[in-house]
Amino acid sequence: xxxxxxxxxxxxxxxxxxxxxxxxxxxxxxxxxxxxxxxxxxxxxxxxxxxxxxxxxxxxxxxxxxxxxxxxxxxxxxxxxxxxxxxxxxxxxxxxxxxxxxxxxxxxxxxxxxxxxxxxxxxxxxxxxxxxxxxxxxxxxxxxxxxxxxxxxxxxxxxxxxxxxxxxxxxxxxxxxxxxxxxxxxxxxxxxxxxxxxxxxxxxxxxxxxxxxxxxxxxxxxxxxxxxxxxxxxxxxxxxxxxxxxxxxxxxxxxxxxxxxxxxxxxxxxxxxxxxxxxxxxxx
Amino acid sequence: xxxxxxxxxxxxxxxxxxxxxxxxxxxxxxxxxxxxxxxxxxxxxxxxxxxxxxxxxxxxxxxxxxxxxxxxxxxxxxxxxxxxxxxxxxxxxxxxxxxxxxxxxxxxxxxxxxxxxxxxxxxxxxxxxxxxxxxxxxxxxxxxxxxxxxxxxxxxxxxxxxxx
Lengths: 284, 164
Prior knowledge:
The structure holds 2 protein chains of 2 kinds.
Chain A: H1 3-16, H2 25-42, H3 51-62, H4 109-121, E1 144-154, E2 157-170, E3 173-182, H5 191-195, E4 202-210, E5 213-220, E6 230-235, E7 241-247, H6 268-275
Antiparallel strand pairs in A: 1-2, 2-3, 3-7, 4-5, 5-6, 6-7
Helix pairs in contact in A: 2-3
Chain B: H1 3-27, H2 30-46, H3 57-74, H4 97-108, H5 112-122, H6 128-135, H7 139-157
């Protein structure tokens, strides 16, 4: 067998083989987005104190399997060493007129919007729960946090997402409440389709009507990822998408030293109602 | 959809079948080939903003695909995906289905790095130098691995090999 015969044999093998249907483009995009979100959390750019919790889960993804840890807050994480034919991302201009150092807004309108998100989140904690306000201690993240982060360009314009997170406590047990808002154009689809864009794969999803609006409430379906228990997703007509999620674990860490909540802090209906709370509707 | 999503989706729709074919020739299993392809494209998604020129997208995905395949082989996954559990018997039946199986089975018996060289050189038609860069070895190594790989296939498939 020479080179030409081998080439022909390979084409012959492929041509005669019954290939499965083409892979789903939508599925590939979803997989990419989930990986990007895990990387974001793992690199600490989320800034909401979840670095420790996702280190184990997200490191393999964040490092592209190389095992090399990424610098916290590092701009432009690459899954392979930079090459001459690749370029670094350009981050949005900050309020000081200079390009940001990473995708997180440290000040300005975007950062203020994230702070407002947290301020409202602590007011909607379920009845009977307290919302501690404790700073970071050692490697333990603060009990409350917020951030605004540049996600991507949409139609040539910057599109951002916002997160706020707060611990909730009851009877010595600690869980977590989080709200995440995505500006128009970043995520689209029907109610349960939107729910697939959150941190983990949903195991189930139901549509809960709230005042004539359809809100998806999803439960976690990945047995290897127990950070989040359930979450609600709602897409506003203007394209803004709001997620509200609960975790029974402090800082979403299943191995947290804090005792986890024994029961879900919010019902599906309560979660759904929070997702359509206008105070969480950030307008770009 | 973000600009990245849109561009990525277009590229995926255009190139995922071809990349999956390469993966299939490397691992001999369509399901595993899909996993390899998905892994490679997910890494591309993450690196999308860094892979600025579209002319390098193919190279990036191909490199990731092959390296993922080699890494998994090194970790032992290959033992579960061999095309056949034992080296193929020389075929005497008519060409067609049997010859396809024979080529894939013979390929599965070639050491993984040699197989990667063969697929990159003769299926992907990339140069000796590019293959060497992708695999992190010298051009001379690529040439010798290709020659040995072809010789191994000749031994496995001779004298009944037929591409009809």
